[in-house]
Amino acid sequence: MTSNNRTAAIERKTRETDIDLQINLDGSGLPELDVQVPFMSHMLELFSKHGLFDLTVRGHGDIEVDDHHLTEDIGICLGQAFRQAVGDKTGIKRYGSMTLPMDETLVTVAVDLSDRPHLEWKAELPASKLGTFDTENVYEFFWKFALEARINLHIVLHHGHNTHHIVEAMFKALARSLDEATQVDPRITGVPSTKGSL
C-alpha cells in the first residue's frame, strides 16, 4: 500500500523567482497562498479545493518583467512536489480523467501517472490576456507541471468562448483527474503496470 504520508516540500530560488511550496495529497482542499500573480493564485486555490490537496505556496519573482518566470517556476515546483508526494505509486489507480463543464465551456483532462512526461494540448484560448496575465503562460504552466511530475497529460477544449471559464475548467478538471489517479485501490497489488514498474 502507498504511504499514508503523501506530502512533499520544494524550494526553488533563482535570480528570477523565489518559491516555497508544500503539498499534501491526502488533505481536505485547504490552500495557503502568497503568490504575486493574482490570476495564478486564483487557479491554485481552485486546484487545491477540487483535488482535495492541501497546498501552500509562497511565490515571488520578477513580475515587473512579466508573469512568465513565476508562473513557469510554480509549475515546475508543483510538478516536482506532486511526483515526490505520490511516491512509488504502489496501489494507486494511476489513471484519472474528468470532463468538466463551466457555463458555456466544456473541457476534458486525462492523466496517466506513467513516468513518461507528455502534454497533449488541444485548446485555443480566445483572449491573449486576463487582466495583466498573459494567457500563453497557461500552456507553459501545464507543460512544466507535466514534465516535472512525469505524467502524461491531455487537455482538450470541446467548446467555450470565455477565456477565464476555459482556464478555470482546465485547472478544476486537472485537480479532479489527479485526485482520481492518486487514489489507492485495495485490489491493486504493487504498481499498476504489467511491466512491474512505472
Plain-language structure description:
The chain is 33% helix and 31% strand. The chain is of the alpha+beta class and 198 residues long. The chain has a 4-stranded mixed beta sheet with strand order 1-2-4-3, covered by helices on one side. The protein has a 4-stranded mixed beta sheet with strand order 5-6-10-7. Helix 1 (38-51) links the parallel strand 3 and strand 4 (54-61). Helix 1 (38-51) runs parallel beside helix 4 (163-181) and helix 2 packs parallel to helix 3. The mean pLDDT is 94.
Structure summary:
Helix content is 33%, strand content 31%.
Radius of gyration, Cα only, in angstroms? 16 Å
Tell me the strand percentage band: 25-35%
Number of helices: 4
Strand order of the largest sheet: 1-2-4-3
Which class do the helix and strand fractions yield?
Answer: alpha+beta
The total count of strands amounts to: 10
| Rounded mean pLDDT score | 94
The SSE order reads: EEEHEHEEEEEHEH
Set out the fold topology.
Blueprint: E1 7-13, E2 17-24, E3 31-35, H1 38-51, E4 54-61, H2 68-86, E5 95-102, E6 105-112, E7 118-122, E8 129-130, E9 133-134, H3 136-149, E10 152-159, H4 163-181
Parallel strand pairs: 3-4, 7-10
Antiparallel strand pairs: 1-2, 2-4, 5-6, 6-10, 8-9
Summary tags:
4-stranded mixed sheet; 198 residues; single chain
